[in-house]
Task: inverse folding
């Protein structure tokens, strides 16, 4: 194998080369650097890269550890000690993280090397990465299209082979949707499965950290290292973490998969429907039983999501006040002027829009009508899933109603952008886990645009999701196709 | 306004300590009216029998032992501060 082929490898394949001493962690990083130098100018997935620090790590890497010597790209909303953490925003200025997030500590303990920070929608608010205040990331399959978002940088880097694997965050679909649009695997873990300590909070009742990878096995390997209780995060669950790779390779006999009738909605691209229907047939031929069912409150998901997520964001983003870190307005005449101008100058349009909406739904006189009502409907949505999972092991659907759209196509219409999350946001509201795996391509004007299949399972059933997704993936070759760059 | 919402973006921006330009105020007024109109359907859902939940996992009053451990030093905590003195953050004057 040529050194230049290393960046295209999966974690699992890279690991066996490393363990047989056929390559060294340093050579892996050097090959990745060469790949990034040639391809990154077309994609713009990264906001910062620190090869010097990474090479130091590589020199002492223990390749016998679960992720030993594997370089990992990290969404720029997760703190990595000594590195910038922009959250895709101007308001953080020249901030450098004084500490590692718990997920980074855990990845390091498993031998992984975080080497670069990836682009994202500002504070993870968006579905195209176009809300980044720093740069525009392009979809490796078609450079005129978005990579999805908000974890668009990590997704594009993995798809472009400028990363072996990436870490993202998912509040309403921000791992699964870009994974779908870039033709890779992305997992949103169950609420509480992965620590959020060191993750800049967007919507605290919804945010989760998860992997973006080339294969289901790689996602399972990262989750085995990253999941688990953290004394620094009171919402993290104490349940033991299984070896998520253990169920891989088990067949689907006896597995029941639900197909919700509410997911056949208007506005879904026919090429997405037909790819997902074919995937469902494929799962059936692998031994799964298909069960048609109903999630009656699905249609309210986006409305509930935008009230709750913006309410929580308006509170979480109050910490950006220009006092302890980040951008601050010059020569304020008083404290209100300091806050008002610091935030005006530092936040981009979508963040401002959401702070306004969130502040409004929490304000006196509207709190009950909007915020509390949304919380109640959220309970109904969660109840739909609880009932469904009494009958089935998992639910299958498209991840995104459309393949990658054109850069600029939706930026003028926030509501159209919000509807990109119709199949994913309810999973966050219910606290369950979900994955997106490649399930086909749409041919659009000469481009091949990836399509993703979403598989949802009840809370803490990641192992089941990996089993089903892996069985499907191994029976197809969608995941082996790479964009021509 | 097109909908029955009485969202006043200028007023809410003051609550949020967020200055907006006139153009942003006008644009958000229209765009958020569309979002609120879309979300009107929530008012038709029967929630009379439902209790509000803050998040999806029933977890309450999480306690742990108060164990001292090494953490950021004052220098590290202040490392990103725009203005600091005597190991403290400097804040714009609050009292006259």
Result:
């Amino acid at each position: 194998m040529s050194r230049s082929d290393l960046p295209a490898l999966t974690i699992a394949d890279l690991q066996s080369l490393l363990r047989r001493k056929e390559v060294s962690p340093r050579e892996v990083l050097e090959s990745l650097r060469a790949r990034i130098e040639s391809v990154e100018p077309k994609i713009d997935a990264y906001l910062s890269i620190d090869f010097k620090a990474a090479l130091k790590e590589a020199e002492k890497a223990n390749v016998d550890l679960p992720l030993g010597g594997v370089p990992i790209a990290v969404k720029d909303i997760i703190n990595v000690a000594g590195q910038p953490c922009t959250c895709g925003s101007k308001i953080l200025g020249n901030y450098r993280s004084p500490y590692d997030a718990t997920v980074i500590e855990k990845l390091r303990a498993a031998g992984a090397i975080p080497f670069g920070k990836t682009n994202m929608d500002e504070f993870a608010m968006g579905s195209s990465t176009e809300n980044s205040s720093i740069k525009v990331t392009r979809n490796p399959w078609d450079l005129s299209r978005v990579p999805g978002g908000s974890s668009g940088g990590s997704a594009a880097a993995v798809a472009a082979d400028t990363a072996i694997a990436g870490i993202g965050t998912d509040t309403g679909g921000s791992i699964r949707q870009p994974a779908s649009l870039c033709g890779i695997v992305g997992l949103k873990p169950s609420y509480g499965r992965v620590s959020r300590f060191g993750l800049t909070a967007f919507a605290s009742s919804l945010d989760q950290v998860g992997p973006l990878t080339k294969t289901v096995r790689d996602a399972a390997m990262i989750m085995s290292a990253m999941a688990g209780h953290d004394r620094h995060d009171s919402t993290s669950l104490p349940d033991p973490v299984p070896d998520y790779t253990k169920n891989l390779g088990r067949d689907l006999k006896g597995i029941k998969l639900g197909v919700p009738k509410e997911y056949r909605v208007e506005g879904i691209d026919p090429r997405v429907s037909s790819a997902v229907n074919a995937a469902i047939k494929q799962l059936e031929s692998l031994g799964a039983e298909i069960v048609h069912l109903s999630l009656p409150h699905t249609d309210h998901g986006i409305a509930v999501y935008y009230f709750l997520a913006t309410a929580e964001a308006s509170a979480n983003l109050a910490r950006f006040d220009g006092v302890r870190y980040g951008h601050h307005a010059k020569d304020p005449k008083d404290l209100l002027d300091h806050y008002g101008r610091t935030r005006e100058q530092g936040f981009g349009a979508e963040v401002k829009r959401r702070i306004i909406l969130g502040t409004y739904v929490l304000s006196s006189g509207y709190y009950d009508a909007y915020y509390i009502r949304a919380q109640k409907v959220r309970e109904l949505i969660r109840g739909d899933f609880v009932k469904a999972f009494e009958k089935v092991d998992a639910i299958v659907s498209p991840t995104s109603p459309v393949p990658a759209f054109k850069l600029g196509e939706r930026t003028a219409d926030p509501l159209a952008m919000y509807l990109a999350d119709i199949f994913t946001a309810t999973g966050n509201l219910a606290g369950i886990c979900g994955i997106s795996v490649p399930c086909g391509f749409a041919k659009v004007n000469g481009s091949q645009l990836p399509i993703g299949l979403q598989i949802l399972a009840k809370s803490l059933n990641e192992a089941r999701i990996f089993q089903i997704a892996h069985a499907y993936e191994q029976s197809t070759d969608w995941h082996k196709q790479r964009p021509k760059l | 306004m097109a909908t029955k919402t009485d969202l006043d973006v200028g007023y809410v921006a003051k609550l949020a300590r967020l200055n907006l330009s006139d153009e942003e105020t006008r644009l958000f007024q229209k765009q958020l009216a569309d979002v609120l109109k879309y979300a009107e359907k929530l008012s038709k859902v029967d929630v009379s029998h439902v209790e509000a939940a803050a998040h999806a996992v029933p977890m309450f009053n999480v306690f742990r032992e108060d164990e001292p451990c090494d953490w950021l030093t004052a220098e590290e905590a202040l490392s990103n501060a725009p203005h600091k003195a005597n190991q403290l953050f400097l804040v714009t004057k609050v009292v006259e």
